[in-house]
Design goal:
This protein is mainly alpha-helical. It contains nine helices and no strands.
Length: 182
């Protein structure tokens, strides 16, 4: 059966198409909207700006993986593997997003923050009595460091294989977090 695409998905596909030929920082909302046959007003009904769309594209996929982790269907190591594969399966787009978005709206900051917030909220829900400020601090440090390393690796500044990167990231879990990130 043919599935009808949502407006968000159309806008996402439009940005993907444009990002193949143009730096993301040079793409305008008008171009994104015109490329998929909607108005700028329609774009703004769904997203605040193009950075909001860029982040939605990754977060949509991120939440699918993290939801499986929340249901305890997959391990943390598997989460890391799947998230790295999301980036690898769409290299042109995500490299463009990492290289050409800056400041508080940058893809790097948004993806790191979204992962961190989601994980902290899940663990607070699972372990309300155990998740103190120090554990939350450790989670923030781990996810921030992991985001930095994965970004450097992804932009070809490290020579690890996916398997090595996932293993190193799993081994780098601080001792105090191992009981939470299984």
């Amino acid at each position: 059966m043919i599935r009808k695409r949502t407006t968000r998905e159309l806008l996402s596909e439009s940005l993907h198409d444009l990002a193949k030929i143009k730096s993301i920082d040079k793409i305008t909302v008008k171009e994104i909207a015109e490329n998929c046959g909607v108005s700028k007003a329609t774009f703004y009904n769904y997203f605040q700006d193009k950075y909001d769309l860029i982040n939605w594209i990754y977060n949509y996929q991120l939440h699918n993986v993290l939801d499986e982790y929340a249901k305890k269907n997959i391990s943390w190591k598997n989460v890391l593997n799947q998230l790295i594969n999301i980036l690898n399966n769409d290299k042109t787009y995500f490299r463009n997003a990492l290289k050409n978005t800056f400041g508080p709206n940058s893809f790097y900051i948004s993806a790191s923050q979204e992962t961190m917030d989601w994980l902290i909220n899940l663990l607070k829900e699972r372990y309300p009595e155990q998740l103190d400020d120090e554990i939350v601090f450790d989670i923030k440090c781990y996810i921030s460091g992991l985001s930095f390393i994965v970004t450097r690796w992804y932009l070809n500044q490290s020579n690890y294989s996916v398997k090595e990167l996932v293993q190193y990231a799993t081994n780098a879990i601080p001792e105090k977090l191992k009981m939470y990130l299984k």
